[in-house]
Design brief:
The complex is a heterodimer of chains A (350) and B (88). Chain A has 350 residues and is of the alpha/beta class. Chain A folds into two domains: 139 residues, Isopropylmalate Dehydrogenase, CATH 3.40.718; 203 residues, Isopropylmalate Dehydrogenase, CATH 3.40.718.10. An eleven-stranded mixed beta sheet of chain A has the order 3-2-1-4-11-10-5-6-9-7-8, with helices on both faces. In chain A, α1 links the parallel β1 and β2. In chain A, α3 runs parallel beside α4, α5 packs across α6 and α7 packs antiparallel against α8. Chain A is globular, with a radius of gyration of 21 Å. In chain B, α1 packs across α3 and α1 packs across α5. The mean pLDDT of chain B is 85. Classes of the chains: A alpha/beta (350), B mainly alpha (88). Chains A and B meet through α2, α3, α4 and α11 of A and α1 and α3 of B.
Chain lengths: 350, 88
């Protein structure tokens, strides 16, 4: 049975959402250790399969993540990460500060052997298209990515897509400003060249932003700065369009009648676009599993974050990622040697 | 496992072993003058992990200011040896 360490602090919708989400996940047989304020989370003790672990402190979005993780060892997110590192839990999930969650996980769980930079990945559900979600990474772990980081992200994403999302042979693409191999930043062009001849990967070339939801790739790779802008743009656009549809449906009697007819379909669409549906992002490239839930997660979002963490453990995502990287010769040492052989010294400094 | 009380030579051996394994470079190519950034392509995260590994902890006890001043393997050995109370 999988045990997930759940951060019980920091969720925008409060301890009620944590408790309800924990209850839903525990009902499916996932064991939970919930770290947080005992006074606010007493209801956790009534959940069969869940244990409340007192955590006296909280790291908020206002805190500088690295300094806060260093200086607050009793913070709930730090204790949750350490719980995984020390083997009491097999995965962690938090809907608190994204930066603190990533930092706590990075320090406690450490990078997978051969990985230089872990990447944050999100699942994009494509409206109207059944089947597994498209994985987009990096969406914020590294604002600056080198050529070889992009290459490794491709493998991290492919391994996760295969192991957890059930895509037998994930199609991988690089996000760029044109489909041609020579389009994009110097790092993207070089990454394209490396991936075009890479082993163990179904690389489909470049993909433009307009094709993100076209279903042409199962894994879309970019640097964390671009990925974060893309993700926030998608979320903002979806919200604006949803508000516009609602306003249009209330603009008159005929529109209201049409809106009523469309309501069931629009409800399904809203569910697909709701971040709660996927449970948030997952930090790939660590020696353990860490899920970064959406800050505004409700009970369903919390439960899905825990489910995602548990599924990654059950499907041995970490081990399979390691095997793919090592087997394909894409560890940081191999990539560095290949860069030197090709006279293509990785472009940016550390 | 505690590494307290290791001699400086023993700390150096552990540092070389850790760096060789994590950065995938031959251990015989690492000596006290080897530079983290320029020779090993390592960064502050590698240094944090090195110190955490040798101190047997999940807590990062290296500050950014300390990390900036550790440029070579020898300086890292001095830093760790001092904290572990190593003998000469």
């Amino acid at each position: 049975m999988t045990t997930v360490a759940l951060d019980g602090r920091g969720a925008e919708r409060g301890p009620e959402a944590i408790v309800a989400g924990a209850r839903a996940a525990a009902a499916e047989g996932i064991r939970l250790r919930v770290f947080g304020d005992p006074a606010a989370l007493t209801a956790v003790e009534e959940i069969d399969g869940a244990e409340l672990v007192p955590a006296a402190e909280e790291i908020t979005n206002a805190d500088e993540p690295v300094a806060a993780v260093r200086s607050t060892p009793e913070a709930s997110v730090v204790l949750a990460a350490n719980d995984v590192a020390e083997g009491r839990s097999q995965a962690m999930a938090s809907a608190g500060s994204t930066g603190a969650t990533m930092t706590a996980a990075l320090f406690a769980l450490r990078r997978l052997h051969g990985v230089r930079r872990p990447a944050l990945a999100v699942q994009l559900l494509v409206p109207g298209r059944p089947g597994p979600p498209t994985l987009l990474l990096d969406v914020g772990a590294n604002s600056d990515a080198r050529t070889n980081d992009l290459v490794q992200f491709a493998y991290l994403g492919a391994a996760f897509s295969q192991a957890v999302l059930g895509v037998a042979q994930p199609r991988v693409a690089l996000l760029s400003v044109g489909e041609e191999a020579n389009k994009g930043s110097a790092d993207v062009v070089e990454a394209h060249a490396r991936l075009a001849g890479a082993q163990g990967l179904d690389f489909r070339g470049n993909l433009e932003g307009g094709a993100l939801f076209a279903g042409a790739a199962d894994v879309i790779v970019t640097d964390g700065f671009t990925g974060n802008v893309v993700l926030k743009t998608i979320e903002g656009t979806a919200k604006t369009v949803a508000e516009a549809v609602r306003a249009a449906a209330r603009s008159g009697a005929r529109a209201a009648a049409g809106g009523l007819l469309l309501r069931p379909s629009l409800g399904g669409l809203r569910r697909q676009l709701d971040p709660d549906t996927t449970g948030g992002a997952i930090l790939l490239g660590l020696r353990g599993v860490a899920v970064v839930g959406h800050g505004s997660s409700g009970p369903e979002g919390i439960a899905n974050a825990v489910r995602l963490a548990a599924r990654a453990v059950q499907e041995r995502a970490v081990e399979r990622t390691s095997k793919l990287l090592e087997g394909s010769g894409m560890t940081r040492g191999e990539l560095r040697r290949e860069s030197l052989r090709a006279g293509m010294r990785d472009r940016k400094g550390p | 496992m505690s590494n307290d009380g290791l001699s400086r030579e023993e700390v150096l051996a552990k540092v070389r072993e850790h760096l060789s394994n994590e950065l995938e470079v031959p251990a015989d190519g690492i000596d006290e003058t080897t530079r983290f950034r320029d020779d090993l392509d390592a960064d502050s995260l590698d240094l944090y992990e090195l110190v955490m590994e040798l101190e047997g902890t999940h807590v990062v006890r290296v500050t950014d200011d300390q990390a900036v001043n550790i440029e070579t393997v020898g300086q890292a050995v001095d830093f760790v040896a001092q904290r572990l109370g190593a003998g000469a």
